[in-house]
User: Fold this.
Amino acid sequence: MLQDLSNKLETILKKVRGQGKLTEANIADSLKEIRRALLEADVNYKVVKDFISEVREKAVGEAVLQSVTPGQQLVKIVHDELVQLMGESFTDIKTAGIPPTVVMLCGLQGAGKTTFAGKFANHLRKKGRRPIMVAADVYRPAAKKQLEVLGQGLNIPVYSTESNDAVKIAKESIREARDRSCDVVILDTAGRLHIDEELMVELETIKKEVKPHEILFVADGMTGQDAVNAASQFAERLDFDGVILTKMDGDSRGGAALSIRAVTGKPVKFMSVGEKLDALEVFHPDRLASRILGMGDVVSLVERAQETIDVEEAEKLEKKLRKNQFTLEDFYNQLQQIKKMGPLDQLLGMIPGIGKQLKGAQIDDKAMVRVEAIICSMTPEERQKPGIINGRRRRRIAAGSGTRVQDVNQLLKQFADMKKMMKRMKNMRFPGGGKARGPLPF
Assistant:
């Protein structure tokens, strides 16, 4: 996510941190490079101009020039201005005093409205809400079917009819939500390949008749300035409440994320960061600014872990670790927990400093699949007692998992080494003579 921009800014600011003393001249050189990096990321020209002006004004002050660590001070200024640019803090969805809350999605065709509807419904359900999705796109042939398939997969109700009147469908869905005791209605409205009068009139009519509590503009994060221009036009006609950025896991240059709030005045509320229906992140400007500058995002990593990791299972695992009873079965279960948290490169990128060390490295997700296949080819006894796996068993496991005997040997060796390390850490003594207490640090 925004990897190209992040790499360029990290390189520029690393040079600044290496300076023993900051002067107006080397600050000007750094800002010139930052300006170029932002423009190449397709950030709005006026937004870049204002951003550089704000950073320059604060960076040439006496407090920075005479600071003990002037380079770090400049990094902090850039970070703070990025946060300011993207909206300072998270802005939540408004809710109705009397249910249901009506959330209307709008945007151009292909931006990902229907997929976001499913992700948003899944997000709300995790928060204890009872959403219903409404197929109000009566023009795109597959729109209704796509929403119905998403609803079936998530076990979330979908309201759709054969009517071609989007306003009527939206109004009837409110009554349907009350009948089903649903407290959030998500209206998936129609889009176009470009903005036209017919589309805007229909959306304005739905807004007038249904009076949604929240209108969200769904923008394709990969289209940069095109998304910002479309958002500006929608804001003039609909006065929407917030922005959703989709496809932020791809080769997004970052222009939309950094420009859209400054241009429209509307906050970004969520980011779609993957294809799976749980790949949705709340938009925290301070956390994204830290990621862009290579500082990681530990808070989001912890929150993601809390959502996916079973606390009871974690406590059982800790007891096994202390008794040195960790098995390949436990190892397999841990792999499943990690997979639920998302792609490895995303997770590692949230850890401060890791992103820099792994720059250019290829994260092989297939290696995890091979490990799973090898463990699944073992008998329950072999998973509990890896020591019984002899040459004949290794050949059988390799054949059953579609791997080589060398791969099986490598996994067993790594598992044995890991158990030895766990045992050493368990017996580690600290100043004062005590052993490690509390959860083990791995």
The longest strand covers residues 214-220. The CA atoms of residues 64 and 70 lie 5 Å apart.
